[in-house]
Design brief:
The structure is a single chain. 41% of the residues lie in helices and 15% in strands. It is α/β, with parallel strands linked by helices.
Amino acid sequence: MTATAIPDPVVTLTTGPVDAYPAVLRALSKPVFYDYDPAFLAQYAAVNAKVQRAFHSSLPPVILQGEPVLGLEAAAASLIAKGDVVLNLVSGVYGKGFGYWAARYAKELVELEVPYNEVISAQAVADILAKRPDIAVVSLCHHDTPSGTINPALAIGAVVKAAGKLLIVDAVSSFGGMEILPEAVGADIFVTGPNKCLGCPPGLSLLHVSAAAWDKIAANRDAPVASILSISDWKRAHEADQPFPFTPSVSEINALDAALDVYLAEGEQAVWARHALTARACRAGVQAAGLRLWAAHEDIASPTCTAVAIPEGIDEAKLRALIRSRYGVMLSSGRAETLGKLTRIGHMGTTARPIYAVVAVAAIAGGLQAMGAKGIDVGAGVAAAMRVIDLAAG
């Protein structure tokens, strides 16, 4: 069967890419202006200011022209110097992955790793920093999506700042879906993107860079310049009299502009509450249906992703394929160490709507029931999700 013969999904409830807001899709169809057209230069400056407003930051952000993996690798390449010892905090696949970049640039990589259904404690970070005062940079993945868990960024950030270290925060799949703001958590480089909770297609990285981080980057002789990985090349790109290092993605800027308008108009508190309610209904539903959350404790489960542990004897890939073919619902797999062990339901952007929790619960429980899994009750799961939604509605 060719790819063109495979029907489109009815609903995509993945952890990224996610479906885009209608306003974003309309913006993608706008004319592509020359990047030095005065209208585009003014728009670029305005979009940068909107990102700064959404970040609640005191400094202009940096927009890199590539999906957030670019921002994360650029953070490692720019901030970490050859003489640095780096503490990488690992509670999942993406946290572990950042360590590979960090090790490439650092003198030494130290890792604090916990089981991938747990999270990092601030006390454990404090203990390591006390034992290793030579650590210069700490890196944290706030929401490790392949585990669906949330690390306590505020508490960890406070510990890192008290120790006088620099902090890199990966907030790619959490910013815009919950309260995580760069200066509030003490991030020196904060990396996110519009392709998760802001409801855009993948294509840009959004960075907050602190004054201390700019100083460190300037002093780092090995920090990239005239490179796709350069952060400093884009530091002043939002200023109308400064050249772009290379051609920006005009269409992606149009999309980001629209996504920020949606986010700011709805209000961040309302957006965060919508994500949280959708996840809460989903968690209640999957558990009532007879399933288990992957997270060791529900209080560390993400508002933007519900990771569901797969019952023994069920082939996870076949389960997702059945769900897609029978119900038209596309869900996400695990990654690396969590591959085959869990299925992920995304609550991000336009699909962070409570009714989609009902769809997801019905689909995953129905699929498992069809595959012969024991103890699955589709009706109980749907009813539990609906109760959460109805209770919130008053």
